[in-house]
Amino acid sequence: MAESADVEQLLTSFKKFALHGDPKATGKELNGKNWAKLCKDCKIIDGKNVTGTDVDIVFSKVKQKTSRVVTYEEFHRALEELAPKRFKGQSKEEALDSIFKLVEGKEPNNAGVTKVAKKGAVDRLTDASRYTGSHKERFDESGKGRGREGREELVEKTGYVGAYKNAGTYDNKMRAEK
User: Could you state, in order of their start, the residue ranges of all structural domains in the chain?
Assistant: First the structure.
């Protein structure tokens, strides 16, 4: 009875890794990338006895010649091939049990896969008070966008060049001279 529970956990791990990272995956076949991820996440690859190259070679050995994926049965055979290599001091059956225990109940590790954007850069780039040039004209003092007025050159028939800061001061200047 305990063996069927272990096989069930092994099948569950196989399905989780088969589905990882592929929205079209059915969970019945495991591709080479996810096989390597399974071996790394479940600590089958130890860097001494079993390396990434060993894992790739075993994957190529157990899959069909024209196929790019392995089924659950082929996955099982691949673990049987890696077990004596990973656990050298144990008998074949003990090594197989040990490698199954490494895989059972595990799921893909996502830690460190995606980094969150740094908040400081976003704040700096979206702070409208620090804009210069033509972009500065699109926002008011509070940082709120001016809408159409900030995007389009609205024609004012005053006789002054657009965005001239001293517009309307000519009459005041002429009165001051008289």
Answer: 1-103, 120-174
